[in-house]
From TrEMBL:
PROSITE patterns: GART (PS00373). Residues 2-202 form the Formyl transferase N-terminal domain. It comes from the Eukaryota. Its EC number is 2.1.2.2. Residues 215-226 are annotated as: Disordered. This is phosphoribosylglycinamide formyltransferase 1.
Amino acid sequence: PRVLVLISGSGSNLQALIDSVAGKRSPQIPAEICAVISSSPTAYGLTRAKTAGIAAEVHDLQKYYKDIPKEDKDARKQARKKFNVDLAELVLKQKPDLIVCAGWMLILSPSFLNPVSKVNVPIINLHPALPGQFAGIHAIERAWEAGQRGEITKGGLMIHRVIKEVDEGEPLVVKELELKKEETVEEYETRVHENEHIAIIEGTILALKEIEQKSSDKETELPKLE
Ligand SMILES: N[C@@H]1O[C@H](COP(=O)(O)O)[C@@H](O)[C@H]1O
């Protein structure tokens, strides 16, 4: 199977996937990473992909916003839609069996999700908070602050299916982490990243198993009697 990875930053989760596919980290993902697409031209993850010999390209929203005044909300909305439509084309051109968002920091709109779901390619995402907790950005800091205020005792992270509601899709993998009052936000963040690298591999393997199961179910399906 072919796994396509979407990134935006340093790519430490991409590296965990690369190492697992290469058998340098277990469990081993039984697939190949067919391509990496970054939303940022300066993402270090691009270097990681190239070092691993994986096709990598940039799909930059800023290019779509170029020459559009900040206050022109409609034109920016149209540009964002075009960005998502073109992203779907770029992704589907690679014929992936699974799309993994590993630190992809842009919302995937219906203009992307619809064409992808039409060809039944599942999408999973890594989010550094527990289901229903702190959707969106700065989730690690927000969880740590809530822990410091004594509002919650557990933080964590999840791998979930991508739907149009941001960070709300059904979780495949959930990792709970105790929040410690004596811990700095940097220390908590380090624990989150260590567990993300384990979860992204587990989530990818689970999603691939589901794809395999679905296709074998299809094969054993009795032909419809006319
Ligand atoms: N969405 C968040 O962005 C970070 C990406 O890290 P990296 O994989 O680029 O190192 C991860 O913490 C992920 O949860």
